[in-house]
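quick one, 279 residues, struct below
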Amino acid sequence: MSANHTPSVSRRSFIRNVSFASLFLLGGGIQPLSAEELYRLRKKVSLRFVVASDSHYGQPETDFDGMIEKVIGQINAFHHEHPLDFCVFNGDIIHNEKNLLPLAKKQLDKLTMPWHVTRGNHDMVSPAYWQEVWGTPLNHDVTIKQYGILLGDTSNEEGKYLSPDLSWLKQVLDKHQQQKQVFLFLHIPQAKWTKHAIDTPAFFELIKNYPNLKAVFHGHEHDQDGVKMSNNIPFFFDAHVGGNWGTEYKGFRVVELLEDASMVTYMMNPVEKLNEMIY
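---
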């Protein structure tokens, strides 16, 4: 689907479609915000990105071509009106079969902003093949506008649920300690908050030592589109953009970091705002 076939995400639709908004204070307080207040805050955005997960390209008995074309059109349309600095497809890009990976990349190449990927448990390919197709290793990091973007691997060629490489993670968190903020993307949740998560206490022991880690983003749990908190770090879920189960809608998460380092985030469905929050 091209941007021309996607509804506008104009000011009017923004105001009309905000479901609710809250300001989450560091001390634990919560302050509601109106849609108009949120819209005014958007003038102070210093970084804006989208997270989309679980396209499951190639899953049998699903319209996987239609679904990925639709979400790419929706993200491009959003980018046209509200420019994005980047987009992350956070795992389960394909559904099991190795030969699907280059086909999925052809679809993601249609995105009109910089984009990055992580491996999920259904991206069942070797590290060498992953790098051959995407041009990046499974664990990698980039710096965008003085913000650290960390993209970690949480699976393997057999599709097991794994913790990230903590040695790599410590190395890149140390590397980015001087950055304004750091964002971490991992497909598999590392706490048993959800049905399909795993439990990795050492992960939480590590990341609590890095106060500039602003947020962690997970895919995997198609029926989750909210947030969990640990040591004042939000862990966000973004439902799914493909596959055959999960939330009734298929959506992606928008994140907007403001000039004062607070953070607005909401789900897009694709032009209806859901679960809008400020941190």
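The two ends are 33 Å apart (CA to CA).
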